[in-house]
Amino acid sequence: MLDILVVAPHPDDAEIGMGGTILKLADEGFKVGILDLTNGEPTPTGDPKTRMKESLKAAGALNVKTRITLDLPNRYLTDTIEAREKVANVYRKLKPQALFIPYWHDAHPDHVAASQIADAARFYSKLTKTKLYGEPHYPTKIFYYFSTHLRLFVKPSFIVDTSKYQRQKLNAIKCYKSQFNKKRNNLMVFDRVNAVNNMYGLMLKREYGEIFFCKEEIGIEKFGGIIL
Fold first, then answer.
1. Domains in the chain and their CATH numbers?
2. Beta bridge partners of 142
3. Closest by CA position to 156, among listed 42, 21, 40
4. CB neighbours (10 Å) of residue 185?
5. What DSSP state is assigned to residue 38?
6. Using 50, 70 and 90 to split pLDDT, how confident is the model at 123?
7. Is the dihedral of CA 80, 147, 109, 43 positive or negative?
């Protein structure tokens, strides 16, 4: 059983979007898992076996012990009943209390579909009289993390101070050597991630931060967690 499950369209999206927060949550004693809907392949310089090794290494760098990869199709990810049921089966098996899923607006169709699938699977997960795995389960809350291909400046629901974990986050992303390398001429991704996290961190008067969204209201028990 998990406290938190992070759903990602591809291996590396969870790391880019909320690697610092995953590290922070694990450090605070929460049981965190990652569910990749696809294996992320094919890509120009990768292959399924290499990508799987990289994703497991990255999970270790994030102190995540549970990482599952589904067999949904990369590049052609679609919000279907079958996809919803596959994700709902994972929810029912791992029983997370909170879900972190991709922000719903993106240039990459897989990211949009992943958000829709993960959202709908939450409802499917609570169904009775169904062929789905095990007992019904309904994750209490959904939060949306930001790992988008669009150049957007958005107003989040909240920002997490991840200053302590930025270096570890970048190290986790660097595990994906088949995806970020000189051959693909995309090593600038590390500068971009650093810059974006720095920008949002400065809004808290901190060095780095990661942003999140919630469609429902957010309650707090103790005021002590608010950054002043």
1. 4-216 (3.40.50.10320)
2. 99
3. 21
4. 7
5. S
6. very high
7. negative
